[in-house]
Design goal:
Length: about 325
């Protein structure tokens, strides 16, 4: 079989902004810190090594130990979790939604690329350790984006009323998806493997978070993948200083707005990538996942009667 490579800029799938970025166009250099080549990684390693504290490593390690309770942890993954305590260990992180049965191929591609990058970095920087991380988007709310997967032109969909964080959703109702999928794929050896994988992940776990963690771990545990659930109280405590800056100083809104203006001045061919909001945090409780909004010094949960004073939030 003949295999050839097509440059990203030739695919027609990416905007001019992305094409110019991946080809390291100099006019975009002011917009980012380092380009993701080996020289860039060298500088990133030096910078991160200075400001990521041992106490932060300890919190991450302890949270992962809790999250992995009851999980069949491979030697490779366990070793990588232990390595996170060491000051010469760095992570390569990818994140993705909790797509049903992985959803698009992109889910797998991102994780595989992350694992491969850690291997390349280890070759280049042998005195450092590199751990591949899959960050589960357990607090995402876009159920319609994740409740299906495609197979041979057919769409297998989990029909369910859903609200709030998708990671909290119970897996009830996936028996019907499993039954239909099982009929479709037949009884070959590979089909049996897929049936067992789906059944073990979604019919033997109570929530979508637990099911997705099982699935990703089953597929990638022998490659040392570490799976992180950000819906974690101890991890969020580390985020508090950044939360305060976003909520009370609107730091992200100001910086992103400045960058949008800078991008449009560089080239009119560059589309606006995101429309920033003043506050980028959500109230998450009892099936509610709504934005926090501010008006005249008062803070409210969007589309609810829930309000807070600044003092209450602090």
């Amino acid at each position: 079989m003949d295999i050839d490579c097509l440059p990203l800029v030739k695919t027609g799938y990416f905007s001019k902004l992305i094409c110019d970025y991946v080809t390291a166009d100099t006019k975009l250099k002011p917009l980012y810190n380092r380009f993701p080549n080996l020289d860039g990684f060298k500088g990133q390693i030096e910078e991160k090594g200075k400001h990521f504290t041992q106490s932060q490593r300890s919190v991450l390690f302890s949270s992962l130990i809790e999250q992995y309770k009851g999980i069949n942890v491979s030697k490779q993954t366990n070793a990588n979790i232990e390595l996170l305590k060491e000051k010469n260990t760095f992570t390569v992180v990818t994140g993705h939604q909790l797509n049903l049965f992985t959803g698009p191929l992109y889910f797998l591609y991102k994780i595989i690329s992350t694992i491969n990058l850690t291997k390349e970095l280890k070759k280049e920087f042998p005195d450092q350790n590199f751990v591949p991380i899959y960050w589960m988007a357990t607090e995402d709310h876009d159920f319609d984006e994740i409740n299906y997967f495609n197979f041979k032109g057919l769409k297998f969909q989990w029909n369910k009323e859903a609200s709030g964080a998708v990671g909290h959703l119970p897996t009830e109702g996936l028996e019907e998806v499993f039954a239909l999928y099982s009929k479709t794929i037949g009884d070959s050896k590979n089909a049996q493997v897929l049936k067992e994988l789906f059944e073990s992940a979604y019919l033997k776990h109570d929530t979508l978070t637990d099911a997705t963690r099982f699935l990703a771990n089953k597929i990638f545990k022998d490659y040392g993948l570490v799976i992180v659930d950000g819906d974690d109280v101890e991890l969020k405590k580390l985020l508090v200083p950044y939360m305060k800056k976003d909520i009370f100083e609107q730091t992200a809104f100001k910086k992103v707005s400045e960058t949008i203006e800078e991008i449009t001045q560089i080239s009119s061919d560059y589309p606006v990538q995101v429309n920033p909001r003043e506050i980028n945090y959500f109230y998450l409780k009892d099936g509610i996942r709504e934005r926090l909004v501010e008006s005249k010094g008062k803070y409210a949960v969007n589309d609810t009667a829930i309000t807070f004073t600044k003092e209450e939030l602090v």
